[in-house]
């Protein structure tokens, strides 16, 4: 598989390098490589890498990942220790692509988007109850699952229902195990 990736990446460069004396052939080869990349499935796309059973397993894992996120948020209500809250912060931030990811503000009920860090601060400051239901995978994109779910949030005796769509990204990461390097696939939560 690595060899195929290397061939696909370096073949156009090799062709361009060999024909550097002829500008027209360089342009033609670049256009051909660009057209070829449009017609093929991206090498790192989920559908190109896995069969239907593996994709279903990652989809189920994505559902659990979202559920775990909301379970972590409810831990803020049960913790008054700053050390425990920092550990919860770390665990949640490891689940997301970025700490500056824009998310819905379901704690205050505002319609505006806030960063993940702002959401975590609101969770620490407010006592709330959250119930997650009807979670389902609605789309498989090249590098993410699109998960739709319903969130019931009670904060300060006001209950609101949110219908949310969240992306859960699945992508390859090169990891080192001693002297051995291996590509593993990681799930990360995205925007909602």
Can you offer a commentary on this structure?
There is one protein chain. This protein has helices at 2-18, 23-39, 46-49, 52-78, 82-95, 116-125, and strands at 102-104, 113-115, 128-140, 144-155, 158-177, 180-189. With 192 residues, the chain is of the alpha+beta class. It has 2 domains: 2-39; 49-189, Roll (Nuclear Transport Factor 2, Chain: A), CATH 3.10.450.50. It has a 4-stranded antiparallel β-sheet with strand order 3-4-5-6, covered by helices on one side. It has a two-stranded antiparallel ribbon with strand order 1-2. A hairpin with a 2-residue loop joins strand 5 and strand 6 (180-189). Helix 4 (52-78) packs antiparallel against helix 5. The longest helix is centred in the middle third of the chain and has 27 residues, at 52-78. Residues 1-41 have low confidence and may be disordered. Residues 1-21 form the signal peptide. Keywords: Signal.
List the main descriptive attributes of the protein structure presented here:
single chain; 192 residues; alpha+beta; Nuclear Transport Factor 2, Chain: A; 2 domains; four-stranded antiparallel beta sheet; two-stranded antiparallel ribbon; 6 helices; 32% strand; globular; signal
Summary, kept brief:
With 192 residues, this protein is α+β, with helices and mostly antiparallel strands.
What's the arrangement of secondary structure elements?
Layout: H1 2-18, H2 23-39, H3 46-49, H4 52-78, H5 82-95, E1 102-104, E2 113-115, H6 116-125, E3 128-140, E4 144-155, E5 158-177, E6 180-189
Antiparallel strand pairs: 1-2, 3-4, 4-5, 5-6
């Amino acid at each position: 598989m690595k060899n195929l990736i290397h061939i696909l990446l370096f073949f156009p460069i090799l062709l361009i390098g060999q024909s550097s004396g002829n500008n027209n052939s360089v342009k033609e080869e670049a256009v051909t490589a660009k057209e070829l990349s449009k017609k093929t499935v991206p090498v790192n796309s989920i559908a190109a890498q896995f069969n239907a059973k593996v994709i279903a397993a990652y989809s189920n894992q994505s559902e659990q990942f979202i559920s775990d996120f909301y379970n972590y948020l409810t831990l803020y209500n049960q913790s008054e220790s700053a050390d425990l809250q920092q550990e919860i912060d770390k665990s949640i931030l490891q689940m997301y692509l970025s700490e500056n990811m824009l998310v819905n503000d379901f704690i205050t009920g505002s319609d505006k988007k806030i960063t993940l860090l702002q959401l975590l601060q609101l969770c620490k400051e407010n006592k709330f109850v959250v119930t997650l239901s009807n979670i389902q995978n609605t789309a498989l994109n090249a590098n993410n699952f699109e998960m739709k779910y319903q969130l019931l949030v009670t904060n300060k005796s006001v209950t609101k229902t949110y219908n949310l769509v969240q992306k859960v990204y699945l992508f390859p990461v090169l990891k080192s195990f001693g002297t051995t390097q291996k590509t593993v696939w990681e799930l990360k939560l995205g925007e909602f």
